Amino acid sequence: MLKIFKTIIFLFIFLLIPSSASAATYYVATNGSDSNAGTLTAPFLTIPKGLSAISSAGDTLYIRGGNYSVGAFTFSNKTGTATQKITISGYENERPLLNASGRINALWDNFIVLSRLQHVTLKNLEIANSRTKGIYLARSNNVTFDNIWIHHTALAAIWAEEDTSNLIIENSRFWQNNKVNDPTCTSGNAACPGWYAGGQWMGAIHPRGSTSSTGTYINNVIIRKNEIFESYGECINAHGRVSNLTIEDNAIYNCWAPAIYYPNDKDILIQRNLVYHTNDTRFRRGGNPSAGIGSQKEDPPTRPGEMKNIRVINNFVKGFGSNFFFWQHIGGYLENTLIAHNTFVDAHSNTGTANSINILPGPHINTRFENNIVVQDDTTGAIGYSDGSVTFSNNLWSKTPPANMTGAGDIITNPLLSR
Length: 419
Known about the structure:
Oligomer: single chain
Structural class: mainly beta
Strand content: 35-45%
């Protein structure tokens, strides 16, 4: 009797444990067939077929290595959970190439559309030669891009729209994006056919909330441990109404427009990034390196700018026309902003005078610039400019700054940085 009782208890507990038996694994390979079962030994041939097989939380699609020439496709309305994510990945140590070359798109169409997803991870993939964006993401929650390479795209590598939250982009590489702004991409250039040159651009990584007066934010975005370089627009452009944004531990260099740009955003942490410009002629804007880290108001004049609760700390920035900046476009100001423990080195200009620190008038509210190192040995640049509404203190300057940028605890000396 006791044995029967223990058996009943065991079965009762077993039934209470959530089952992952419904989770399935599918495979796509260049030698497969869409009439196959999608197993490792009998894989599907096409990526859309593999995606269509995903139906439950915990499902995984592995894409075997190889070159997949694919047209535009959409993956939408799929829901994983925090413990059973839906995963789309290259198989083991293989990195499949999703190659969009040969496709013709209108400029504002999209290549890979991800919409209304919950708890989905994409990893170990390479995406190239899109004549529009690489990935367009909208109306999704808890989406992660891990170890993704996206390059040679006409517009952004990743564009994330409003009504998206809890987005992570990490351990990835992005280069040669925004090639619509590449001056070599003129009509008839076989290197970028159909890329619609004409001065439109965006960030290589471009989270963007709504620009309408009643629009929503894109919330909780983490961009970390990526290499982002050779963008013909911004490298990171959190373009308006982005909140709870973290940009950390990235290497970012040779961006035609600002390297890290956050207009009209709030609750931002930018830390431990290596950001620099080598004065590469391909990525000069107006003949000069653009700007390193900063913002300006780009919302309509009828709505106040949201540039508040910002921390820019422990970054190394070198070689831009302005290493840190706040520009004036249509008003706006910084509020509750801390710029601290950064190293800003050698603003550079080829045609005029650069300002390493360039903070145009606000007036700014509770904005502090403290415990930074500012080195300006490059004779084409100056220490900087500020309107006087920013509080400066405890900074090390290699040269005497303007009077309204000095503060208690300042040191003026050569910090003897290793060159």
